[in-house]
């Protein structure tokens, strides 16, 4: 029998419960006229943020520094043939600079979301 190994590399380690993230995400989401249980279907993470895809066709962006969750609303680009996700999100991928997020669903639709980071000066 082999013993479990600790992976030293990687950004996805849970040192503490992610309760600040999970408390900001609803347990149910509206799909048309009905409320559906929200289930996470995909995840991508960097040292600064975590992005979660859901069965309702939405993505949630969590800033690890500020503990703020943003509901991503992709905008249709001029090359988008169809609408936004109508089925569960199954894949997420960030661009190298972290400014673009590509999400794919179970119907094969890929949505491009450009992150608009606005600097707020207080």
Brief digest:
The chain is mainly β and 122 residues long. 3% of the residues lie in helices and 39% in strands.
Instruction: Outline the biggest β-sheet.
Output: 4 strands, antiparallel
What strand line-up does the widest sheet have? 3-4-5-6
Class computed from helices, strands and strand pairing: mainly beta
Distance between the termini: 58 Å
Secondary-structure element order, N to C: HEEEEEEEEE
**Gyration radius, in Å:** 16 Å
Uncertain spans, ≥5 residues at pLDDT below 50?
Answer: 1-5, 76-82
Q: Name the helicity range.
A: under 10%
**Number of discrete helical segments:** 1
Shape: globular
Our estimate of the beta-strand percent is 35-45%
Number of beta-strand segments: 9
Average the pLDDT over all residues and give the rounded result.
76
Overall description:
The chain has 122 residues and is mostly beta strands. The protein has 1 helix and 9 strands; from the N terminus they run αβββββββββ. The strands form 3 sheets. It has a 4-stranded antiparallel sheet, with no helix packed on it. It has a 3-stranded antiparallel sheet with strand order 7-8-9, with no helix packed on it. A two-stranded antiparallel ribbon has the order 1-2. β8 and β9 (110-114) form a beta hairpin. It is globular. Mean pLDDT is 76; it is low at 1-5 and 76-82.
């Amino acid at each position: 029998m082999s013993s479990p190994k600790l992976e030293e590399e990687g950004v996805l380690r849970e040192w503490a419960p992610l309760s600040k993230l999970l408390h900001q995400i609803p347990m149910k989401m509206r799909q048309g006229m009905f409320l559906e249980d929200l289930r996470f279907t995909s995840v991508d993470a960097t040292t600064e943020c975590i992005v979660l895809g859901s069965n309702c066709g939405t993505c949630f962006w969590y800033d690890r520094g500020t503990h703020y969750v943003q509901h991503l609303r992709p905008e249709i680009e001029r090359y988008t043939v169809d609408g936004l996700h109508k089925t569960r999100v199954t894949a997420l991928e960030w661009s190298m600079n972290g400014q673009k997020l590509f999400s794919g669903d179970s119907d094969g639709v890929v949505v491009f979301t450009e992150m608009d980071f606005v600097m707020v000066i207080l």
